[in-house]
Write a structure and sequence with these properties.
With 292 residues, this protein is mainly β. The protein has one domain (31-273): Lipoprotein localisation LolA/LolB/LppX (outer membrane lipoprotein receptor (LolB), chain A). The chain contains four helices and 13 strands. The protein has helices spanning 2-18, 33-44, 141-145, 263-269, and strands at residues 49-59, 65-76, 82-90, 98-103, 109-114, 122-124, 152-162, 165-174, 186-191, 197-203, 209-222, 225-235, 240-250. It has a 13-stranded antiparallel beta sheet. 23% of the residues are buried.
């Protein structure tokens, strides 16, 4: 009986350790920046199918607001390739404008912009840097599609504690840069209790903070997996900010069929609209409080 009791205790401890990184040494001084980021992506950012309805509110230095409505589609295929589509629905002057990105299993990404006013063609987006803003927002293409771990070099800094919350601090640089010349692109603040990136400082070429990205209203969308219902990007240089608020989120392949991620689907569903075909749009509805 005593042997069975000790075996039960050992099994219970083993199960606990499988769910708590500190039991197996995760987060100790020996854990490096790459290992931390791999765990962050494994836990929170590898949803195979995502559909979101979003509102994007942009505020300039004078306090003037510009509201846009968007839909986000993303899909991870069995071979590891990733498809991404951000589609603007409101207001009428940007309706049908889209960002289309495809990442192959080797990590190579092609990014295209679709502008219905230019007809049936995709414009290739060559911008890769953190400061390349997308269509007047304060977000870059990379901010919207996510950074590729294999293309970056991660360095862990000293942990920090703010308002009673402990954070891993990880600096990000381009992996292809020579070690002696690596420039920090951004710094991630990762909560140690849930391994979610809640704050990122984006640096300019002179090493100054150019933009600050923060995630808010975290919700559990799957077992131990979190997603932010609000993401704020503050542009310190231009005194401008962009807020993305997700009003609806569905994790289902039914909402992100493969044909959506093609130029042909965009051409058919969002063709060029002639001036006499345009209709006046109603003001956007208030956002729902809850997220599916």
């Amino acid at each position: 009986m005593k042997l069975l009791f000790h075996n039960f205790l050992f099994l219970s401890f083993l199960i606990f350790c499988l769910n708590a990184e500190e039991c197996v040494g995760f987060g100790s001084k020996e854990t490096n920046g790459t290992e931390i980021m791999e765990e962050v992506y494994r836990r929170h950012q590898q949803f195979p199918y995502i559909y979101e309805e979003q509102s994007m509110v942009m505020v300039d230095r004078n306090g003037d607001r510009d509201t846009r409505k968007t839909k986000r589609y993303s899909r991870v295929e069995e071979d590891g390739s990733v498809r991404f589509l951000l589609l603007f629905d409101y207001p009428s002057e940007v309706k049908g404008v889209a960002l289309l990105a495809n990442r192959n299993p080797e990590g190579q990404t092609n990014k295209y912009i679709y502008l219905p006013a230019y007809g049936r063609q995709l414009l290739e987006s060559a911008g890769e840097e953190s400061g390349d803003n997308f269509l007047g927002t304060d977000f870059s293409v990379e901010n919207l599609t996510g950074e590729i771990l294999a293309e970056h070099h991660y360095v862990r800094r000293e942990d920090e504690e703010k308002d009673g919350v402990k954070y891993f601090i990880v600096d990000v640089a381009k992996a292809r840069d020579p070690v002696a010349e690596k420039k920090i692109l951004r710094r991630h603040y990762i909560r140690q209790d849930n391994l979610f990136i809640t704050l990122t400082h984006h640096y300019d070429r002179h090493g100054r903070i150019a933009r600050i990205q923060s995630s808010h209203d975290l919700k559990e969308v799957d077992q131990n997996r979190l997603a932010a219902n609000m993401v704020l990007m503050e542009n310190k240089k231009d005194q401008h900010q962009s807020l993305i608020k997700i009003s609806r989120r569905i994790l289902s392949d039914d909402y992100v069929p493969a044909e959506i991620f093609t130029a042909e689907w965009l051409y058919e569903n969002y063709p060029k609209i002639e001036p006499d075909e345009e209709n006046n749009e109603e003001s956007p509805l208030e956002l729902e409080e809850s997220t599916e």
